[in-house]
Design goal:
The chain has 6 helices and no strands. It has 151 residues and is mainly α.
């Protein structure tokens, strides 16, 4: 009898990490179905995200044009060349960051359609409204984000 109990315990302990993560995802999706943001709030955040995306796209376009202007100007000596090169790299680096934000905004818009917007990817709890108003494309609650940054 004792051997059977110990064998059962060993089998339970051998659940793979993949199985555990699948269970977590299923649990999160069940939580997401039970917990959904009110439709009025979703509409507000959807409009906020669409405006944010438009602003980011405009900014990327403007910075790309600025980078082209900087690159096309006549260069006279090595110091000017270095300065212009640095400025162009800086402008293109910023646009890459903004492009990442655009991807995050698009993902958030998909999450609104899926009904999972406003739910933390890590713990499955609601992300505070204040956090979403500040960063509408946030996918982690403030607690999980703080834990992630401290790793």
């Amino acid at each position: 009898m004792k051997k059977r109990k110990s064998m059962k315990r060993k089998k339970i302990a051998k659940i793979s990490t993949k199985t555990k993560s699948k269970l977590k995802r299923k649990t999160k999706s069940k939580i997401a179905k039970k917990k959904q943001m009110p439709k009025q709030s979703l509409k507000f955040f959807k409009n906020l995200l669409i405006d944010k995306k438009k602003d980011l796209l405009d900014e990327v376009k403007r910075r790309s044009e600025d980078g082209k202007e900087t690159y096309n100007e006549g260069v006279k000596d090595f110091a000017d060349m270095a300065s212009d090169s640095y400025e162009s790299e800086f402008i293109y680096g910023v646009t890459d960051t903004e492009r990442k934000y655009i991807d995050d905004v698009e993902l958030s818009l998909k999450r609104i359609d899926d009904g999972t917007y406003g739910i933390c990817d890590s713990c499955g709890k609601f992300i505070s409204k204040a956090r979403l108003e500040a960063i509408p494309f946030a996918s982690l609650c403030i607690t999980c984000k703080a834990k992630k940054e401290h790793l």
